[in-house]
C-alpha cells in the first residue's frame, strides 16, 4: 500500500469515527462514484489492513483518553441507568442498557465472533461485570 493510499484510508477512518460509525458512508465520502455495496465491502476490507486497524485503535484510544472514558466507567454507568429504568418501570430502557452492557462485554456472537453462547449478566455484580470485561479485552488483544 502506498503512503498516499494509507493517508486516504486514514481519512475514511476519521470520517467513520465522527459520522456515527457508518463505514459505508465514510468510504463513499472519499470514493463517491462507488455503489453502496462496493463501499460496504471495501470498507470492511480496509479494516483488515494492519496499518489501518492500528490507526483506528490509536484514534479510539486517544478519544477515550481525552473523554476519560473507560470500559469500567461505561459498565458502571450502564448498570446505574439499568437500575433507574427498572425503578421507573421503563423496562425497554432497562433492556437497552443490558444490551449495551452486553456489547461492551463482548457477549454477542455478532459483535465479537465468539463461539460461546451469550451469558446472562443480570445477576452479576459491578465487580464481576468489570472483571469479565477486562478478561474479554485481554482475549481480543
UniProtKB/TrEMBL annotation:
One of its GO terms (biological process) is chromosome organization. It comes from the Bacteria. It holds the Pfam family Terminase_2. InterPro entries: Terminase_Gp1_N_sf (IPR038713), Terminase_ssu (IPR005335). This is Terminase small subunit. It comes from Christiangramia crocea.
Amino acid at each position: 500500500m502506498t503512503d498516499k493510499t494509507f493517508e486516504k484510508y486514514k481519512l475514511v477512518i476519521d470520517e467513520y469515527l465522527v459520522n456515527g460509525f457508518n463505514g459505508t458512508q465514510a468510504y463513499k465520502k472519499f470514493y463517491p462514484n462507488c455503489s453502496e455495496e462496493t463501499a460496504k465491502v471495501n470498507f470492511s476490507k480496509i479494516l483488515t489492513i494492519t496499518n489501518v486497524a492500528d490507526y483506528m485503535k490509536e484514534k479510539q484510544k486517544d478519544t477515550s483518553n481525552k473523554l476519560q472514558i473507560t470500559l469500567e466507567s461505561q459498565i458502571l454507568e450502564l448498570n446505574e441507568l439499568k437500575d433507574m429504568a427498572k425503578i421507573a418501570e421503563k423496562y425497554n430502557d432497562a433492556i437497552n442498557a443490558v444490551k449495551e452492557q452486553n456489547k461492551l462485554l463482548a457477549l454477542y456472537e455478532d459483535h465479537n465472533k465468539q463461539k460461546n453462547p451469550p451469558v446472562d449478566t443480570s445477576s452479576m455484580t459491578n465487580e464481576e461485570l468489570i472483571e469479565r470485561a477486562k478478561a474479554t479485552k485481554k482475549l481480543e488483544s
